[in-house]
Amino acid sequence: MTLNNLPPELQSKICSYLVTSFGPSPIHALLRTCKQLYDVALPFSVQIFRNTAPIHIGRGPCSETSNVQFLRYILISKPELAKKVHTVILGGFTTTRERVKTPPTATSTGEELATYEEFIINALGPQLSEADLSRRDSWIAHLKEGSSDAQISLILLACSDVKRLYFEDYQDGPSQNQLFKKPDCFIFLLEMAKTLSTSKTPGFIAPLQSLRHVQAQSHEDNDCGWEQAFRLLALPQLKSYESLDTTRCGNFAGDSTILPLITRPNSSSVRRISLHQSLAPAAEVQALLGVCKHLEKFEYISPALEPIYGIFARDIMEAVLPHASTLRHLHINFSDECKKIGWEDDPDQLYLGTALAQMTALRHLSIGMQSLTGRFDPAPTDEQDTPLQIDGAPRLIECLPENLVELSIRDCGKAILDQAKELIGLIKRGKRFTNLRRIVLLFKAEIANLRDIQQAITENPLEGSCCDLWVAFQHREARWISSGRGHTFEGIRAIPSLCSRIFADDLRKDWINFREALAYKLYASSSSPHLPAYRVGVDERVNRLLLLKPPHEYQLQD
Hints:
- The chain is α/β, with parallel strands linked by helices.
- It has helices spanning 8-17, 27-30, 35-45, 64-77, 110-124, 130-144, 148-158, 184-195, 224-233, 255-258, 282-290, 313-320, 369-373, 396-399, 417-428, 450-458, 476-482, 505-514, 538-545, and strands at residues 48-51, 87-90, 164-168, 213-217, 240-244, 272-276, 297-301, 308-309, 329-333, 340-341, 364-368, 406-412, 438-444, 468-474, 488-490, 493-495, 520-524.
- Among the domains are: 1-45; 49-224, no CATH class.
- It has 19 helices and 17 strands.
- The strands form 3 sheets. It has a 13-stranded mixed β-sheet with strand order 1-2-3-4-5-6-7-9-11-12-13-14-17. A two-stranded parallel ribbon has the order 8-10.
- This is F-box domain-containing protein.
């Protein structure tokens, strides 16, 4: 039976598998076959709009020419397809670079611009304040100038059913630079999406009302990413917010204008927040989590190989504690090998403390040894000022929530052995933590002593309990991969981070699955007869995440 002879429902299902987020999509081949398949495949051909820089390092400004062509397609040629766009993936549109001259075919005509102006006016409706009318007119003016910020904002306004938005904050130099321009049109669109969401006008649909998932990928000293973050969290249907490479220097800019956009604390619908490769100050992380009313998952991963300052484990604890009754997954990686700066006046901020035990809904905890116990074993070659042990730090069994199901502790050293033995003894006797089903202890391969581990842990196995114990060793390279750090290569594609949904969404899925299992020399698995869930060898997993290096001309300079 040929594809033409299949029912339309099956043809549509097949087409859905041909949509790709990177590279040429096979769906476009179907558009050139016959009228029947053209009609079926056409809506799928626009499901993903990708406009990223075609450069091998995987970051940079989006193409204004691509914006113009796509706007012409969804607002003039085939406006019925605008509502079929479900995913928008963008390079930076906050760039201050001077636009190069484009051919006449790559710019909007006066007639097209008039159509776009009318669309913006009608889409936002008449219920705008004088200030908002002025900003709307500024948006239209920037559109006529060929601003990528204005173009992208119009695309998001026109595509009323967008569910996923992944974008970069690209810029030349720090945002404190006077020449840096924030994406004013995009920020205005986000504010209108919140303001107009309560409109009572019959048939009126506010912008971005279907948006569910966002990842914002920042660069270096970009401050404007936080202003966008709070506005995005105000969207009524947003469920997941991710930020990559979030860095901030100085005070929180725009505090007085951003927070009132969320009318009250605990008002955002976002349930999952991930901050990867982040050096976000504590106050901003706490403010971001403070607007969530039903937070279920939080991840914070600091940049590997970079000093940690401005935020520590205790700051994360204070941020998540208000969500004790809802938070189920907590993943914290402060890269224990990295130097900590500014802890001297209050050493207790380096670990979570007994407040963690109040997280009654917590089921899955992944954390470093220092952040959990206040103890630290540095690698012999490291120069660390951080103490080996913080006086007065509570024991492991005093901190863990009773209803925990899975516990993973990375960066382990000899300092955790006595506390791990105490925990295992309680579980074996059925005294506490009766819901725990798996404990994973990942020791640093450079400093782990097999004999000490045998004496402390494997002589007291969890036989007769429902809990599995995994003890493994990790080399430094595997620890870096676990943090999402490093460059990955695929053909001529170089990806700066495994966490990126923009440039590595396919590899990111492997990274999520394997980051807790990138361990060498699995010494003791479970006491049950079942094999570990990860059957792919460690070397194979590493190779899948750190692919073959590309030809010399594509390699990045350190």
